[in-house]
């Protein structure tokens, strides 16, 4: 990595539940966490305010996180009970979000994509998100780390 300024921002308080239906153990059952996400940002040059990323400008990312993870039920698109989950959603029993993969690793990658889409459209490559940690509790977390190809290094 070329020399750069970095910073991080943690977004927390997203209680949701999911299940890993293919797992042979207890993870196949519906269970929940209050997820949090830490995003690491970098920039070669600081913005006009002296920031890598102005945290107060990340409202759109916070909105996406809340929409996806705040009091929601996450299921894989290939979950064999998808029709039942959809029926419960239609009845108002749960707030369903269908994902390719509900795991923390895939969630970290999804948030990385969202953060970089926001930064690229707004800053034109001046800054990027190079790492996201998705945490399900104080013991367990997964990370996704990559520098987007469009980032001006």
CATH superfamily: 6-pyruvoyl tetrahydropterin synthase/QueD
Strand order of the largest sheet: 4-3-1-2-5-6
Q: What's the architecture in CATH terms?
A: 2-Layer Sandwich
Report on the biggest sheet: 6 strands, mixed
Encode the helix/strand succession as letters.
EEHEHEHEE
The parts where pLDDT drops under 50 for at least 5 residues are none
Distance between the termini: 9 Å
Q: What's the overall average pLDDT, rounded?
A: 95
Helix tally? 3
Number of domains: 1
Shape: elongated
Helix content: 25-40%
Strand content: 25-35%
Summarize the structure.
By secondary structure, this protein is α/β, with parallel strands linked by helices.
Account of the 3D structure:
The chain is an alpha/beta fold and 153 residues long. It has one domain: Tetrahydropterin Synthase, Chain A (2-Layer Sandwich). Helices cover 26% and strands 33% of the residues. The protein is built from 3 helices and 6 strands, in the order ββαβαβαββ. It has helices at 59-69, 82-90, 104-123, and strands at residues 5-18, 31-43, 72-76, 96-99, 127-135, 141-145. A 6-stranded mixed sheet has the order 4-3-1-2-5-6, with helices on both faces. Helix 1 packs antiparallel against helix 3. The mean pLDDT is 95.
Characteristics of this structure?
six-stranded mixed beta sheet; 3 helices; elongated; 153 residues; alpha/beta; Tetrahydropterin Synthase, Chain A
Outline the fold blueprint:
Layout: E1 5-18, E2 31-43, H1 59-69, E3 72-76, H2 82-90, E4 96-99, H3 104-123, E5 127-135, E6 141-145
Parallel strand pairs: 1-3, 3-4
Antiparallel strand pairs: 1-2, 2-5, 5-6
């Amino acid at each position: 990595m070329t020399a750069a300024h970095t910073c991080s921002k943690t977004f927390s308080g997203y209680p949701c539940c999911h299940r890993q239906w293919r797992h042979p153990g207890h993870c196949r059952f519906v269970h929940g966490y209050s997820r949090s996400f830490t995003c690491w940002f970098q920039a070669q040059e600081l913005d006009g305010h002296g920031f890598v990323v102005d945290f107060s400008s990340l409202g759109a990312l916070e909105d996406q996180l809340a929409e996806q993870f705040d009091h929601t039920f996450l299921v894989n698109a290939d979950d064999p009970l998808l029709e039942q989950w959809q029926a419960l959603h239609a009845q108002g029993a749960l707030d369903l979000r269908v994902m390719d993969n509900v795991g923390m690793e895939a969630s970290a990658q999804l948030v990385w994509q969202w953060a970089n889409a926001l930064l690229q459209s707004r800053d034109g490559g001046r800054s990027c998100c190079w790492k996201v940690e998705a945490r399900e509790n104080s013991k367990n977390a997964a990370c996704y780390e990559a520098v987007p190809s469009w980032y001006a290094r």
